[in-house]
């Protein structure tokens, strides 16, 4: 794949993931405002998420959209700021894998409550 | 990919440059925060007690302040991102400067709501 085609595909992937994230972030902000009333507690968080498949699916979609969106943005910033260093691709891949692995672990964690 | 073009003072004093800088800055900080956020939430795999220990960090004022800043950054990035999508995918209607002002107001409103609900 040529560099130009790759750039076009990455641009499109970031915009499509941004559309998904727009909905997810708006819902997440509402959940944040609901959740922080009276302080955060483990019982309240797990009470909402444990065994709740809709929450799990919503947050896994959120994680997957972040997995696509954030590393492309980071790669663009690094490539434009440090164009000759070649760090954009490895660092954005590290971020992508961290988001996917830690994010999915977090979703499994709050869904199961550690009772696997 | 190429390096960023050099911009003179006139370009940088434009309101759209401010929106661009805010979007990049908020996006970069959010990208740094997200793995840490997931790391903390993944402690729930250790059961309620293990999760309680990591959640206790959020009682420390610096983490509370960080959460507040991140909610504001998330709101800025969301509203700024919607503006970009409208510029790129909607019918051409200028640089939608009204959306920049709306983004700032939305971020302030989210920051105030967070303070209101978080006691």
Account of the protein in words:
The complex is a heterodimer of chains A (116) and B (119). Chain A has a single domain, classed as Up-down Bundle (3 helical TM bundles of succinate and fumarate reductases), CATH 1.20.1300. Helix content of chain A is 82%, strand content 0%. The model of chain A has no long low-confidence stretch (mean pLDDT 94). In chain A, helix 1 (3-35) packs across helix 3 (53-81) and helix 3 packs antiparallel against helix 4. The termini of chain A are far apart. By secondary structure, chain A is mostly helical. Chain B has one domain (14-117): 3 helical TM bundles of succinate and fumarate reductases (Up-down Bundle). In chain B, helix 2 (15-41) crosses helix 4 (61-89). The N and C termini of chain B lie far apart (46 Å). Helix content of chain B is 76%, strand content 0%. Chain B is mostly helical. Chain B has helices at 9-12, 15-41, 47-55, 61-89, 97-117. Chain B is built from five helices and no strands. Chains A and B meet through helix 1, helix 2, helix 3 and helix 4 of A and helix 2, helix 3, helix 4 and helix 5 of B.
Short description:
Chain A is an all-alpha fold. Chain A has helices spanning 3-35, 42-49, 53-81, 88-112. Chain B has one domain (14-117): 3 helical TM bundles of succinate and fumarate reductases (Up-down Bundle), CATH 1.20.1300.10.
